[in-house]
Amino acid sequence: MAAVLAAAAVRARILQVSSKVNSSWHPASSFSSSSVPTVKLFIGGKFIESKSDKWIDIHNPATNELIGRVPQATKAEMDAAVSSCKRAFPAWADTSILSRQQVLLRYQQLIKENLKEIAKLITLEQGKTLADAEGDVFRGLQVVEHACSVTSLMLGETMPSITKDMDLYSYRLPLGVCAGIAPFNFPAMIPLWMFPMAMVCGNTFLMKPSERVPGATMLLAKLLQDSGAPDGTLNVIHGQHEAVNFICDHPDIKAISFVGSNQAGEYIFERGSRHGKRVQANMGAKNHGVVMPDANKENTLNQLVGAAFGAAGQRCMALSTAILVGEAKKWLPELVERAKNLRVNAGDQPGADLGPLISPQAKERVCNLIDSGTKEGASILLDGRNIKVKGYENGNFVGPTIISNVKPNMTCYKEEIFGPVLVVLETDTLDEAIKIVNDNPYGNGTAIFTTNGATARKYSHLVDVGQVGVNVPIPVPLPMFSFTGSRSSFRGDTNFYGKQGIQFYTQLKTITSQWKEEDATLSSPAVVMPTMGR
Ligand SMILES: *[C@@H]1O[C@H](CO)[C@@H](O)[C@H](O)[C@H]1NC(C)=O
Ligand SMILES: *[C@@H]1O[C@H](CO)[C@@H](O)[C@H](O)[C@H]1NC(C)=O
């Protein structure tokens, strides 16, 4: 009964729609030079100031100015967040699927209306260009739109009359409290891969955004609340290692979605699994673009440059390695020319093609990897290490960099660089190129550029990578499919979003029932309209 009443309250809450964000609450808008704004926790439907004595500074990557502080939530606050998720779960799971769908339908509308606002926060905290930040929100929005089709996605299966009077059917049911740990490179898209799918299935969710870029998640949480999601169905905490360990260990958390580095992913997979949780972990990558000499040259060079240097290379799907096959080697000078023409600037400046890296440490790491190329015998054809961006001299900028004559045993090939650096290898044949790609431990994405269908077919068939593009440089699947990274790029057994996403966030209950025909109530047809109380 309590659950029924609570579900009714949820429904009443869902029907109140508020549409516009009051922009006075989030970190960027409250910024003034005298006071550094603090990022709030979102617990039980309230944005609350943390009582923590440990705070992390947030810097604008284009200037390194301090723009905010984010707390490392205390144990008590994290406990309160999980309890809130746990309390909200029974009523939310009992809320009809149509009502949950309504919340998501309103949510996709509110995200659309506030897309530019979210993108501005991303550019401020993460550094990517505004256009790219809008793309970040848009790709997440597509997952929200897909989550709206939950009524089809969550269908179970039935097998009638397996024996006399006996039927078998299965339901998909939510797991309980699920948690997400997101990286810094896609502040909107990746959180949106997680909580909307989990919640539309009836789970409640604990989100830990990257402590470097929390703003977008906070705004997304506000918009979800405005869409009618009941208090406690989504809670947001902040922090680093302690928060991660807390999530891996807490007995009330049933599943963890993680995207980020290999080291963290392996750790979370091991630690979470040991505590009996489902874990899906999307991790590092080294994505190869194989260029055949029969490719459309114009198109291929543009695609390569965009996919290698866009978002300053801080995409796990960045095409960071080119393999030029045969005569395609001759295109290298033109590739360099195109890369040179890209405009490096602060993300909010008009015309910027790529912005800064996330932090001074990231810049140093990328520069060291470029140095290693020189030391190990590669050639730097274009060097972005000493770039100066006018007006932004303190930013973490690295310009487009191209390293050629790279061999598979070099450090710059083996490590994921995560910066605007394209390493170029050369082979004589397609078979050699395939061997290189398959020998690499990562299997996130790959692309082949060719005008020959048979070559494309052969490559797609033989390459052991989860996502393949044919003349498409960044083959991130749309949400009706799943994000299918493989080998060292993924741990777990069900991928993000699409049908696999629904499987990850639900469990099956199978019912075998027998209703004997002879037990059917014998009643003579009622010819008179039944009257209550007779
Ligand atoms: C692959 O790329 C995506 C998107 O950039 C990233 O989030 C993810 O961590 C990477 N790895 C896998 C296996 O998906
Ligand atoms: C890579 O292998 C070649 C040939 O086996 C060798 O000469 C070279 O020193 C190696 N380079 C590195 C960086 O290990």
Provide tags for this entry.
single chain; 534 residues; alpha/beta; Aldehyde Dehydrogenase, Chain A, domain 1; 2 domains; six-stranded mixed β-sheet; 22 strands; 20% strand; binds 2-acetamido-2-deoxy-beta-D-glucopyranose
Write the layout of secondary structure elements.
Layout lengths: L1 H14 L25 E3 L2 E3 L6 E5 L6 E6 L3 H20 L2 H17 L1 H12 L3 H18 L2 H4 L4 E6 L2 E9 L2 E5 L7 H12 L3 E5 L6 H12 L7 E3 L4 H9 L3 E7 L2 H13 L3 E5 L5 E4 L5 H13 L11 E5 L6 H9 L19 H16 L3 E4 L18 E4 L6 H4 L6 E7 L2 H10 L2 E2 L1 E5 L3 H10 L4 E4 L15 E2 L2 E2 L6 H7 L1 E9 L20
Parallel strand pairs: 7-8, 7-10, 8-9, 10-11, 12-13, 12-18, 13-16, 15-16, 18-19
Antiparallel strand pairs: 1-2, 3-4, 5-6, 6-22, 11-21, 14-15, 17-20
Helix pairs in contact: 1-2, 3-5, 3-8, 4-5, 4-8, 5-7, 9-10, 11-12
Bound molecules: 2-acetamido-2-deoxy-beta-D-glucopyranose (2 copies).
The site of one 2-acetamido-2-deoxy-beta-D-glucopyranose has 12 residues, from loops.
Bound molecules: 2-acetamido-2-deoxy-beta-D-glucopyranose
Q: What fraction of residues sit in β-strands?
A: 15-25%
State the CATH superfamily name of the largest domain: Aldehyde Dehydrogenase, Chain A, domain 1
Order of strands in the sheet with the most strands? 14-15-16-13-12-18-19
The secondary-structure class comes to alpha/beta
C-alpha Rg (nearest Å):
26 Å
Shape: globular
How many DSSP E strands?
A: 22
Question: Which stretches are low in confidence, meaning pLDDT under 50 for 5 or more residues running?
Answer: 13-33
- The CATH top-level class label of the largest domain: Alpha Beta
Number of domains: 2
Mean pLDDT: 90
End-to-end gap: 27 Å
**Major sheet description:** 7 strands, mixed
**Percent helix:** 25-40%
For this structure, the quaternary state is: single chain
CATH topology term of the largest domain = Aldehyde Dehydrogenase, Chain A, domain 1
CATH architecture field of the largest domain: 3-Layer(aba) Sandwich
Q: What's the helix count?
A: 17
Enzyme class: oxidoreductase
GO molecular function: methylmalonate-semialdehyde dehydrogenase (acylating, NAD) activity
GO cellular component, one term: mitochondrion
Family: Belongs to the aldehyde dehydrogenase family.
